[in-house]
Design brief:
CATH architecture of the largest domain: 2-Layer Sandwich
Shape: globular
Number of strands: 20
CATH class of the largest domain: Alpha Beta
Bound molecules: flavin-adenine dinucleotide
CATH topology of the largest domain: D-Amino Acid Oxidase, Chain A, domain 2
Structural class: alpha/beta
Helix content: 25-40%
Radius of gyration: 21 Å
Distance between the termini: 22 Å
Amino acid sequence: MKVAIVGAGLAGLSAAYALRERGVSDVSVFERREGPGLETSYANGALLHPSLVEPWNSPGVFGELLRNLGNEDAPALLRPHALPSLLGWGLRFVRESARARYLANTLANLALARYSVAQMPALRAAGVDYSHHATGSLMLLRDGASLQAAQDWARALAPAGRRFERWSVEQAVALEPALAPVAGDLAGALFNPEDERGDAYGFCLGLARLLTQGGVALHYGCDVRELRWRQGCVTGLIDGQGRSHDCDAVVLAAASHSPALARPLGLRLPVRPAKGYSLTLKPPPTTPLPRIALGDATLHVAVVPVGEDRLRIAGTAEFTGHDLSLNPARIDNLKRLLARIYPEVLRNTPESAMTPWTGLRPMVPDGVPLIGPTRVPGLYLNTGHGHLGWTQATGSGCLLADLMTGKEPQIEPTRYAPARFRL
Ligand SMILES: Cc1cc2nc3c(=O)[nH]c(=O)nc-3n(C[C@H](O)[C@H](O)[C@H](O)COP(=O)(O)OP(=O)(O)OC[C@H]3O[C@@H](n4cnc5c(N)ncnc54)[C@H](O)[C@@H]3O)c2cc1C
């Protein structure tokens, strides 16, 4: 089988690796950028987090989005100009927030996240180095009621494998002394032993190297303009220079750009961009770098050490189409939030040692990725991972490759099947 993959982010590269591992000899990846992992997979939250797999449509969230119209400090922000592109998508988003669906979608994400993280040691053994630390993460809670609610929810997921420990503020500070200045603002924490941290971009670079060594062709600077099909079956693709590339199967892993490529084949992929921001700080060596990955449930951000000398704060969601401009108000907001977690790191880091970034999470309305075949023969999807694309990358690649090669999938595939959207 000759397979062409569109997109060299976490999703595309992971799929390429898994296909190659299953003996598919002819795999090519087409990427419009000059290298791998340069879009959404570049400076994300750096966290593999089976602890945080809930879709974003918790009951009531759409009302919150509407209330926050125009509020630059809101964790989730809807821009009015993006509304038309979100109409049908938004209705499904709201429908999926019914409690039973929300729980089912959370469980689907949890299964895939745990499966995915379990695949990572094999990749490290194969030589992919991404500054990995399996030291767990802390979710901070700032009031007693939120702490209790977080614990109750985590306990409800425990039968599905969610592991956690409730910690006091003293325990949290003992693990991460850099939290001492804000200890008085905290009510407690959940410690999540299964979470890991690591540099997603480093992972993409390492995986791309491994793919090249394994004979996978990586075509950079190659913008896929359209898919080719004959008698209803996909037969190849056409790049920006008008060159035609034959194949037996195409995998769309082009994040929120996937819908544009699928549309001419009659498939309306429900994947929309949800813009997020990160700020990476390189504090001076005299400022001790926090060692533990943190989430803050009240502030809706993650603060994660990256490599040996950087700290990254990431979060916020903005529905504003494919706009990738860096909004200074959103960056300032991240700084203010960081000041409530690690005030000293922020104070001691000069502006010149802070790197802002923004990326577009590919979001599906039910919050569960699209993995598997479509009703168009030869066309497969591996996209729509939203805020979970790093956590679920490797497992998604394995699941897709099993489906494509006729192997028995290691996790139940229908929950991720594009068919649930009649695709
Ligand atoms: C602020 C932020 C923080 C995040 N934090 C985390 C986290 O801590 N943990 C986690 O699990 N996830 C996190 N995520 C989500 C995660 O980063 C994404 O889900 C993941 O990167 C998506 O990977 P992808 O391969 O689907 O997309 P991308 O990395 O965007 O890859 C798609 C690729 O397709 C290419 N492409 C598009 N169109 C074409 C075309 N026509 N021809 C050729 N190439 C094309 C693009 O150039 C791009 O390289 C975060 C996201 C953001 C924005």
